[in-house]
Design a protein that fits this description.
With about 80 residues, this protein is mostly helical. The chain has a domain of about 50 residues. The protein is about 80% helix and about 0% strand. The chain is built from two helices and no strands. The termini are far apart.
């Protein structure tokens, strides 16, 4: 059981590690992935299969919005 959970978790972490923290689109995708997985888990634990679908959709929307709104400004570039 732990190997079944470990592989998707590792793939998720590696996929998010490639994101540019200063790009709003990358932050939206990362937030949507994290939000949908968390929302599905919470929804499934509260209301079963229909709750998982609603939780995933809600979590994806909130995660993407939060990712875009919290995008930091890129650091200044220095030239010689």
């Amino acid at each position: 059981m732990s190997k079944i959970v470990l592989l998707p978790a590792a793939a998720l972490l590696l996929g998010l590690a490639a994101c540019n923290p200063y790009n709003p689109a990358d932050r939206a995708m990362g937030g949507a992935v994290i939000g949908s997985s968390t929302g599905a888990a919470v929804g499934a634990s509260i209301a079963g299969a229909p709750g998982a679908a609603v939780g995933a959709a809600t979590g994806a929307g909130l995660g993407a919005t939060t990712g875009v709104l919290t995008t930091p400004a890129p650091p200044p570039s220095y030239s010689r």
